[in-house]
Amino acid sequence: MTLPAMTLPAIGAIAAVIPAAGVGTRMQAAMPKQYLTLKGKTLLEHSVERIRCHPAIGELWLVLDKADPYFAATSLVSSPLHRVDGGTERVHSVLNALQQIDAKRYPWVLVHDAARPLVRQADISDLINRCLQVGHGGILACPVRDTMKRAQRVAEQNKVLQTVEREQLWHALTPQLFATQLLRDAISQALLAGITVTDEASAMEWAGQPVLLVEGQADNIKITHPADLSLAGYYYLEQTC
Prior knowledge:
Blueprint: E1 14-19, E2 37-38, E3 41-42, H1 43-52, E4 57-64, E5 82-85, H2 90-98, E6 108-111, H3 121-134, E7 138-143, E8 148-154, E9 157-164, E10 170-179, H4 180-192, H5 200-206, E11 212-215, H6 226-240
């Protein structure tokens, strides 16, 4: 299935999915990381707003844990979005949302991490426009700049096994944009085959589909560790200056 190339997306023509059913244990916080606050709003509120306010986005599917006790206290509780129950892992949550999207109405779907509150509108536009121009999906990514080392575990310690050539390495970011039906099929078939799906692109790669790399801004960080929240605060102020 190859979608026709287009130069600009129609207003509201793309569906969006934000999986937010995770626990985020690495943050060592008392609540899931998507409910930590950044400048008076939860990370989830920031992430949803950044995606939803883009003119190409039509409807948004937000995936939450069935027993989520925090969502009701956010400003999103009365927002026009679709709430979907989460799955065992992130990939199952994304698939739950994809199964509710009408691929004829929304032939393209944008998937974004709940803990990436700083994605720029210009990067979203660049990703959408470039993917539609080539007629297949892609992801925002950043080239690796540091020297990369492959580790080997020796006597409970990590030792350098080798230096990895970084010229062709990229950090995968989100959003990631793919044809709705192709992504749904790729994830479903990968799970049936027992394949580990770490992001939407990995499912598409396994299915033999092309994935475009679109360079995005490095401040589109994912809040994973406690220090990331402070860094996000700095980047937020830089973006709003």
